[in-house]
Design goal:
- The complex is a heterodimer of chains A (about 290) and B (about 190).
- The mean pLDDT of chain A is about 80.
- In chain A, helix 6 crosses helix 7, helix 6 packs parallel to helix 8 and helix 7 packs across helix 8.
- With about 290 residues, chain A is mainly α.
- The N and C termini of chain A lie far apart (about 230 Å).
- About 5% of the residues of chain B have low confidence.
- The chains are: A mainly alpha (about 290), B mainly alpha (about 190).
- Chains A and B meet through helix 6, helix 8 and helix 9 of A and helix 2, helix 3, helix 4, helix 6 and helix 7 of B.
Chain lengths: ~290, ~190
């Protein structure tokens, strides 16, 4: 075995895991090689003094810094059993070396036992009767208007209700009137124009009403006059009918008188004619 | 009686079932209220308010999710209470976080033994945490909620809950060590 062979097997030699035959060869090499013997003695001396020199702290301070932050970030998982085996061993080895992390871990372990004991705290004996008294009044109106009123009452009693209402109101006004894209951003001008238009329309309507009122009065007057005319005509018609009736009667009387005289004359004539005819018949034939 | 049956009877207006449910959850509700507001009297009033809220919303839960629902309602009511107190602070000018440092005037049986001292120290240390870290501790370590439920309740990712939980526990442990060191120095 030469020096390079020994250096390759040095770790196993120190740990005592080298096979028997190789260990004998290494012992023989150490007997003859001064440099390898010095190397082995230096390593053994260094391990013995490692704890006293606090070499790891010095190395960490010059390389990655303290591992306490990383360790503390894993303490909760270590307590909950959420770490893997390898990571748990790393954290435990740090806790064994670091006093501050160790005391913190012990305090957290105690808290894990104490905090669940605070889960229930019993109030005094009058608590339950008072709760039952408070809820008895609510038994019959768990549904319906009182609940809705209570909802709005509790909403209005919220501390920031006024601020929220003012905020929403501002947003609403700004959204409606404040931007050029708002649907009613020119509502004021449109409303003014509409009001002016309405004023003109009202005047027009007023004059129309006056006109139609006059027309209606004229119509009423015409109607009155027509009624008077009809009544007058009706009266006249009655008088005319009376006169005509009287005339008719006169005509009938005259006709009757005429017919009477004419009949008498006709009768006399007929008698004359008869007498004449009778006389000619009785005269001597010549 | 299981939670589903209890809940069903409560919905039907059974006062005995409701009383049983109140007695079953009063410890948890009072504990949550106390750890949020840090004052026994306020916690008592708040716990009553939480039960009134629970009673009004009985129709919105099933027996399987009763406990997460109780914790959710208690947490939301506690947040509302803190907001109201912040908007209308009490007559005595005390910041919420400072209240945890005040010695209680009421006689406390916990003070009678070493275990009580330990709990009191933990309560004081909780008062020194930030509100989010305290909330994580209350929900996960004290109430034993799962990380998924906490993420759903707080509306944050699961990874954030995990990292927050670890940081909160470290912060709490460091605060306890600091308080113990300060107490040792005073002695």
């Amino acid at each position: 075995m030469n020096c390079s062979d020994f250096e390759r097997r040095l770790e196993q030699y120190q740990a005592g895991t080298l096979p028997e035959a190789e260990r004998r060869e290494a012992d023989q090499h150490l007997c003859h090689c001064v440099s390898c013997r010095a190397l082995l003695e230096a390593l053994q001396l260094g391990e013995n003094r490692l704890g006293q020199l606090d070499l790891s702290q010095a190395v960490l301070s010059r390389t990655t810094g303290s591992a306490c932050g990383r360790c503390r970030s894993l303490l909760g998982d270590l307590l909950d059993g959420g770490l893997g085996r390898g990571e748990s061993e790393l954290v435990v080895s740090h806790l064994a070396a670091c006093a501050s992390c160790n005391s913190l871990f012990r305090a957290m372990s105690e808290l894990a036992e104490v905090l669940p004991q605070l889960r229930e705290m019993t109030p005094d004996s009058s608590f339950v009767p008072e709760v039952l008294r408070s809820t008895r009044a609510l038994r019959h109106d768990r549904l319906g208007l009182p609940r809705i009123l209570e909802f709005f009452r509790s909403l209005a009693q919220r501390p920031r209700f006024s601020w929220e209402a003012a905020y929403l109101g501002t947003l609403l006004v700004f959204g409606l009137f404040g931007t050029p894209f708002s649907p009613v951003h020119d509502a004021s001008s449109r409303l003014l124009a509409s009001l002016q238009n309405r004023e003109g329309l009202i005047k027009q309507a007023d004059s129309s009403i006056q006109y139609w009122r006059q027309e209606a009065q004229m119509a009423i007057g015409a109607s009155d006059r027509a009624r008077q005319t009809v009544s007058r005509m009706t009266a006249r018609s009655a008088e005319t009918a009376e006169l005509m009736l009287e005339q008719g009667r006169n005509y009938i009387r005259q006709s009757e008188a005429y017919l009477g005289s004419a009949g008498k004359a006709l009768q006399a004539r007929i008698v004359d004619v008869y007498r004449q005819a009778k006389g000619s018949k009785t005269a001597p034939k010549g | 009686m299981d939670c589903g049956t209890l809940l069903k009877r409560c919905r039907q207006g059974d006062e005995l079932a409701w009383e049983a449910l109140v007695r079953q959850y009063q410890g948890r509700v009072y504990s949550i209220a106390y750890h949020y507001v840090g004052d026994t009297e306020d916690a008592r009033d708040l716990a009553q308010e939480i039960f009134v809220r629970l009673y009004r919303t009985l129709n919105h839960v099933d027996g399987q999710t009763l406990l997460p629902w109780v914790i959710r309602v208690a947490r939301n009511a506690s947040i509302d209470f803190l907001r109201r107190r912040k908007a209308r602070p009490p007559g005595r000018d005390i910041v919420a976080d400072e209240m945890w440092d005040l010695p209680s005037q009421a006689p406390n049986p916990e003070e009678c033994c070493a275990e009580g001292d330990r709990r009191r120290l933990v309560h004081r240390a909780l008062g020194h945490l930030t509100s989010l870290n305290r909330e994580i501790i209350v929900l996960k370590e004290i109430q034993g909620m799962s990380i998924q439920d906490i993420a759903s309740l707080l509306g944050i990712p699961i990874g954030t809950v995990k990292s927050r939980s670890n940081r909160a526990r470290i912060e709490l442990a460091e605060t306890i060590l600091a308080l113990e060191a300060a107490a040792g120095g005073e002695k």
